[in-house]
Amino acid sequence: MAKTEDIGGDGTDFAYRYKMEKLQTKTEGRGNGIKTVIPNFGAVSGDLHRSPHHLAKFFGAELGSISKYNDQTHGCTVNGSHTFEALRDVLNKFIRTFVLCAKCGNPETNMSISGKDLILTCQACGHQFRAAPGHKLTNAIVQEFKGKKGKGDKHEKEAQEDENEGSDTGIVADIDVEEAPAHSRHDRKHRSRREGKENDEDKEKRRKERSDKKKADKEIVVDPVTAELAKKMQDQSRAFQEDKRQEAKERRSYRDHPMMVEFDKLFPLDAPLTQQEIESKKEQLLKRKGQMGQLAILYALERQMMKRQGDESLQEFNFVLNALYQNDICHEVNIRTWYQFSSLSHLYGIDKTTSEKVRNKCKDFIEFIEEEDKEEEEKADEVDEGALDDMIDNL
Ligand SMILES: [Zn+2]
Where is this chain compositionally biased, Basic residues type (predicted)? Predict the structure, then answer.
C-alpha cells in the first residue's frame, strides 16, 4: 500500500521525507462482541520503527479496551467499536510521545532504558529525553527490557553453578590414586607418607574451601529478590490489616467519606463529568492515597452516575473510569474490588438499580484491566527490586 501519511509532519510539505501507510479500520461482529480491526497495523508500526505489540498496548491503554496484535495476520483487533478518527488520534498521540524527537520533531529516534526511564535518542540532532514518564506503555517497555536482562543474568548464574559443581566431584583426588602404581613400593610408601601429610593439609584446606562454598551456596539459595519480596509482602499484609481496621472505623460514615465529599465538590452536578475533567483535577484526586481513598472515588463516581441519571452520562462512564486508571488515581486492584462489591454500594447511598446498571456498562473495561493484570502476573517472576518498589509505592 502507498505510504501517504506524513509521520509527524504538519501535512503542508509535499516533499516531507517520512511517510507511513494510512491506518485502515473496519468493524467486525455485533452488539457486545463488536470489534474494530486494523488490518495494516503491522505495516504502520513498521513504518514507525516500533514494535506492533507496543503500539497495540498503547491503543489498549488509550482506548480502555483489550487490544491485540496478531503475529500471523499482522493486524490488530480492538474490542468495541471505534471510529477511524478516534484511532487516528491515538496513533498521532503515540507518534508524538514515543516516536518524534521532542526537540527537532524528527521521527528517527532510538529507544533505550535508563533505570525506570525509557529514553529516546534523536538520530538527527542527538537530543535525549525521557519518553512519557509513568505511562503504562513506558512502564511495560521498561519491565520487558529488564525481564530480558534478568533472564540473561540467570543463565549466567546457572552456568557458573555448573562450573562450581565440576570442581566438587572429587576428580582431583582420583588422579593421585591413579598415579601411585607407577612408583616402586618403597617410593610409594615414602611418597604416600609424605603426601599423606600434604594430603592432610590439602584435605583440611579443601574442607575449608568446601565449607566456605557451602556457606556461599546457602546465601545464594535464599535469593535476595525472593527474600525482599517475602519481607515486603509481610509489610504489605500488615498494611492491609491496618487498612481493614481503618475501614471498619470508616464504615459507619461511608457516605461522608472525605474523598466522597471532595469528589462532589470537584465535579458539580451541573457541569459535565468527562475524561478531560478528571485529568484537569488529577492533582486533587491523587492527594488521597490508599485503598479506602481510591474506593471512595469510585463509589463517589457511581453515586454521581445515579444523581446524573440518564444514559448520556453513562456514555462517558468508561472514559472517566479509564482516565482514573490511566492516571493512576485508582489502581486496577481497587477498581476490581469496587466492581466486585456492588453489595457495598448501598453503604455509600447508591440504589441497587444504579449499581447494576453502572457495572453492566463497564464490563468491557474491567475485562481490559484484568487482561493487563494477567500480563503483569506473567512477568511477575522476572520482577526486580526496582519494580518491586514501584509496586509497593503504587499500593
Ligand atoms: Zn532531534
Answer: 183-194
Tell me the pTM: 0.52
Distance 368 CA to ligand 1 centre (A): 35
Cα-to-centroid distance, 57 and ligand 1 (Å): 25
Residues with CB under 5 A from ligand 1 (ion): 101, 103-104, 106, 122, 124-125, 127
Q: Determine whether domain 3-99 maps to CATH 3.40.50.720.
A: no
User: Could you list the mean pLDDT of each consecutive 10-residue stretch along the chain, which spans 395 residues?
Assistant: 79 75 92 91 93 94 93 94 92 93 89 90 91 90 80 44 36 31 45 54 75 53 60 71 67 68 89 89 84 88 84 78 92 89 82 88 89 74 58 58
- Find the 112 Cα to ligand 1 centroid distance in Å: 15
Query: What is the CA(55)–ligand 1 centre distance, in A?
Result: 22
How remote is the CA of residue 128 from the centroid of ligand 1, in Å? 8
CATH number of 247-394: 1.25.40.180
